[in-house]
Specification:
With 92 residues, this protein is mostly beta strands. The protein has one domain (12-83). The protein is 8% helix and 28% strand. 14% of the residues are buried.
Length: 92
């Protein structure tokens, strides 16, 4: 098996904690919706996001990443911390 390194690509991301933190994360939609319209996982208010691979539950602390083709997807905080680092804004 060959070894590969991820290309250094800058992304935009925001950490999600509650409904309303990101316009692509919906509340009251998806397979885990409770009768009152909320989405809960282990008692926490959660969200739902449509991705290229289908819908995903978003839990508090997840990062919402905009990919290189404009797509959005969630990323768990531990994976985000191992994969990304802050970038200083460029002054071009």
């Amino acid at each position: 098996m060959g070894r590969y390194r991820k290309l250094p690509v800058e992304i935009e991301a925001v950490q999600w904690f509650k409904p309303g933190d990101h316009p692509k994360v919906k509340s009251g939609a998806g397979p885990a919706t409770w009768p009152d319209g909320s989405i809960k996982v282990a008692g926490a208010d959660c969200g739902f996001i449509e991705t290229l691979e289908g819908g995903h539950i978003v839990t508090p602390g997840d990062w919402i990443i905009q990919g290189v083709n404009g797509e959005f997807y969630p990323c768990k905080p531990d994976i985000f911390a191992k994969t990304y680092e802050p970038v200083e804004p460029s002054h071009v």
